[in-house]
Structure formats: C-alpha cells, structure tokens
Amino acid sequence: MARPIVVALLGVLLEMGVSSESDEHFQTIISGFIQAKIMSEAQLADYLLVSRPSVNRWSRGRDLPRKNVRRGIYKALLKKIDDM
Fold first, then answer.
1. Cα–Cα distance between 11 and 26 in angstroms, integer?
2. Predicted pLDDT at 1
3. Based on the structure, what is the number of domains in the chain?
4. Which residue range(s) make up the domain with 17?
5. Which of 26, 31, 70, 75 can bridge 59 by disulfide, Cβ–Cβ 3.0-4.6 Å?
6. Own/partner pairs for 38-47, CB < 8 Å, 24+ apart?
7. DSSP annotation string for 14-79
C-alpha cells in the first residue's frame, strides 16, 4: 500500500523539478527511487547512463549533477514513473 503513495509523491517531486529546475528535492528523489525499490543504485545508474558512484553520491546528498543534466534526469525518471 505504501509503495503507490511513494511513487505518487516521487512523481509530484519530479514534475516540480522539471518545471523549476530546482535541486531542492534531487537527493530525495534519487534516494526515494532506491528506498522504494523502484530501481537499485546499479539499475538507476544504467538507466541514466551514469556511474554507480555518481548515483551513490546523489542519493546521499554529497554531490549534484549540473542543472541541465538534472533536468534530463527529472524527465527520464518521470517517464519511468509514468510507465509503471
């Protein structure tokens, strides 16, 4: 029951990220995908065509990709949510 709620919340955060290009929720989104078992770190890295260490740093809030890259990530993850 909780997973659909988490997926819906991630979808809302992703839409906010796409429209505002904000980095405010980036870590929450990345870690949310992993914690909700939507994708593992490795799967997320493969899906986004980035390294696993990058995804790990993002999920822990230790680093952020550039703003234009974040926007592409938001769009890709929103597509993933829509396809579920």
1. 12
2. 43
3. 1
4. 2-82
5. 31
6. 38/7, 38/10, 38/80, 38/81, 38/84, 39/80, 47/76, 47/80
7. HHHHHHH---TTHHHHHHHHHHTTSS-HHHHHHHHTS-HHHHHHHHTTS----HHHHHHHHHHHHH
Contacts 24+ apart (CB under 8 A), 19-25: 21/67, 21/70, 21/71, 23/64, 23/67, 23/70
pLDDT at 40: 95
Instruction: Tell me how long the chain is.
Output: 84
Q: What is the CATH number of the domain that holds 33?
A: 1.10.260
Burial 64-73 (b: 16+ CB within 10 A, else e): ebeeeebbeb
